Fold this sequence. Notes:
The chain is of the alpha+beta class and 611 residues long. A hairpin with a 3-residue loop joins strand 1 and strand 2.
Amino acid sequence: xxxxxxxxxxxxxxxxxxxxxxxxxxxxxxxxxxxxxxxxxxxxxxxxxxxxxxxxxxxxxxxxxxxxxxxxxxxxxxxxxxxxxxxxxxxxxxxxxxxxxxxxxxxxxxxxxxxxxxxxxxxxxxxxxxxxxxxxxxxxxxxxxxxxxxxxxxxxxxxxxxxxxxxxxxxxxxxxxxxxxxxxxxxxxxxxxxxxxxxxxxxxxxxxxxxxxxxxxxxxxxxxxxxxxxxxxxxxxxxxxxxxxxxxxxxxxxxxxxxxxxxxxxxxxxxxxxxxxxxxxxxxxxxxxxxxxxxxxxxxxxxxxxxxxxxxxxxxxxxxxxxxxxxxxxxxxxxxxxxxxxxxxxxxxxxxxxxxxxxxxxxxxxxxxxxxxxxxxxxxxxxxxxxxxxxxxxxxxxxxxxxxxxxxxxxxxxxxxxxxxxxxxxxxxxxxxxxxxxxxxxxxxxxxxxxxxxxxxxxxxxxxxxxxxxxxxxxxxxxxxxxxxxxxxxxxxxxxxxxxxxxxxxxxxxxxxxxxxxxxxxxxxxxxxxxxxxxxxxxxxxxxxxxxxxxxxxxxxxxxxxxxxxxxxxxxxxxxxxxxxxxxxxxxxxxxxxxxxxxxxxxxxxxxxxx
Length: 611
């Protein structure tokens, strides 16, 4: 997907300004002017070649009607195809040397040809970029960052070859992990789960309860007709991604498995540490425990689970960069915001399916953030070309952002507490190369044989992106919803032409897990995502056993007519937020539960029917 560079031309034949003058971002304040003699490591992230063809390349391997379905690219072919052109490198290099008078010895091209590095003094950088650099301090944790919030300028003939320059307008994550109980004036990274946790005194008594009050692995198997034992062994792979202090304890896994999956007792996931991530360190046991127990419990002992554990060392990085950089060295070297802080670069293994139960930023257009999240989404698309499937939770804030309920006021600011205002999507769920998963529940006094409803314990996230346009593969489904079932909100409440999500749904409440030495009822779309990830991992296992490729990017297939029978349609419920009832669940796709929950036999048959 070609992405906007968000450039405002000051004088079309002279220069373009990146990020027009603006106030200091929320949570930050100017501490002082940057020392003019201090060294500033600048990085010019170069525009990629062929990026406008990314969707076409992806559809060639992911559209069920394509003769090349499943013929995924090698990482080398991906890197070569999107490497910046010689013209791009030469144009930026020539400007630096011949026009700006930079010593050629100071300029270094990354080994993959994706970025130009140079160390200048702050005074030299200000002269080069027409910017004013400051040292900023964050009010929450005192973190400091050097940047120029009022933007910078590049000559027009150079700007089209540069995605962005680091460090400049982006001031870093405000707080790497937002606890569920926090309500902050600054939206940022956090766990998705807004569901409560209810202790279970006697887990044996749950056997007499229905799946409307306690969801066990057997409930999930009954809901989705999921009955599968993996046979491909190490040829198949799946991972859950956990960040910062979200960790697990093997004793909790054994407690859970002893009751619900005895053959898994003693099993733990294989840790893939990124940025010093350590799952044995002290921290919050909620998210990682939930993800691991659900995926391992559903897949069984014949499928290994990997754990991408991203540590606090990545706390000054941007969103998904530590994970993306760790599995793709070309991205790590090209990334223009936080690669100075990335400790792992292309040295970690990829997997077929990765489940992400976190939110990283509201999907709002912002000249300091939009180019970054668009670049990250593009990277997810490039990795999908190699056969990876990215699955993410859609959020627990309904049509607002995160469980704190951020909405966008008329003056453009974001405010928590679900005030009246424009709806806010959630990243990475709104990236079109991610499969976003909403949450459902079994209705009161109903069974696994009855249709589920959109969960009412929290508002399942869903809506329309402000950063990504609606892809062609979901046009029919979304148009049907907007025409026949869509609410009559004002045009400025949500972006009707944006990428719509979630794509699918799975149960999100009340799931029984073992955590901190006791059984609890928990959930959130942070549970729905790993459940659906387990389902797709089983599909991959069956395809690999049949001599076929993993499914890779699944969204075009999910929306195709070949998969019309692959879902249990959810038509009851809403996802309130921003002082509204949000959207309504409806027949077919809707922005609450997507296409519906998986009907595993039909989903498996549809994928096995593809080449």
